[in-house]
Design goal:
The chain has four helices and ten strands; from the N terminus they run E-E-E-E-E-H-E-E-H-E-E-E-H-H. Strand 4 and strand 5 form a beta hairpin.
Length: 193
Amino acid sequence: MKNPNIKIQSTEILSDNWYQLNKVTFDYQKKDNSWITQKREVYDRGNGAAILLYNTHFKTVILTKQFRLPTYLNGNESGMMIEVCAGLLDQDNPEQCIIRETEEETGYRISKVKRIMETYMSPGAVTEILYLFTGEYDASMKVSEGGGVEHEEENIEVIEMPFEVAYAMIESGELKDAKTIMLLQYAKINSLL
C-alpha cells in the first residue's frame, strides 16, 4: 500500500557502478497538512540475508572475518570485520540465499534454517532489507573449507568459537557489526546455547 502523504516527483541515477545510487525528489505531507519538498540520496544494493550458525552440543558459533573497505575508511584501522555469514539475495528467496551463502562462506552444507526477523539496517540511506536466520551445524555438515567464491573475489576466514567468547566481544568492542550483534543477542535472550 502506498502512502498518500508521499509523492515521488523524480528519481535520478547518480551511480550504477557496483550498485545503484539514486537522488530522489519527493513531496512529503507534514502533520499540519502542509507539504514540503525534499531530496535524498538512496543507495539500492538489493536485499540480503544473514545467519548465526550454532552448535548446541559444543556451545559454539561460526563467524567470518573479512576486509570491509567502508569500515577502513571510517576508523577501523585494519578494515577487518568479524561477522555472521551473510550475502545478497540475488534471484533467490531469503532461505535459498542463506543456505547457499553458508556453504560458500563457511563450508557447511545446512538444509534447515529458522527465520527470526527482518530489518532495515540503515533506513536513512539504504533500501536493503536484511533477513536474519539461525541454524544449527555440526562437523558432519562440513563439505569444504569455505572462504567465499573466487569470482566474487571473496577472501573470508572462517572462525569457530565458544558462544560466550563471541558474546563477550560485543562488550569489549571487538565485534561491531550490527547484524552479528543482533543475532548473538537473539541467541542469548532465547537461550539457544
